[in-house]
Predict the structure.
Amino acid sequence: RLYPHDENSDPLDMLRTRFGFREFTIGPDGRKFRLNGVTWSGRGAAWHFMGIPQLDPAYARAWYEMARSANVNIIRLHALVYPEFYLDIADEMGMLIVDETSLWGSAINFWYDEDFLRRAKAHVQELVLRDRNHPSVALWSVANEIYARRGDDNAPDQDWIFARYAELAGEMKKLDPTREVSSDGDGDLNGRLPIYSLH
């Protein structure tokens, strides 16, 4: 609440937000995840966003219910910043989320463009600032299959491109040091990330 002079005055502005507590870490062996201090095994799923049918909270709820009935306990919001209600519903249902940026393989052709680099940095920052209060978010994913177009003659060197994405992952960690960052389908960016994603 924002008060003009003291708490006895009427508030000028107010914002309510829901939040929850959970601890999701990599265990001391560096190989197993832990959820609230207990070793945890993930059974995950991802889904391509297909447009209008998915712009309904009822769709998100049905997807999570279907996933849970198949013993899925973590879902990656694939290659796109999903509407925030996907996180609100995951919070309510106890579904864990890998929250992914909209950066993926076809963007490889833009990486020599300084304006693209600036926009990519702003994009990852905005995602983290929007979603970091959601307890359902277990991990961030800086990208999806960023080197999938490596056969393109104009594609940058893999190590160069992985270094740029590692910088973006660092921006995510600055804004949210409580969660780890992966890059889905890109290993560990040649040793630059704590999670090796086989996709």
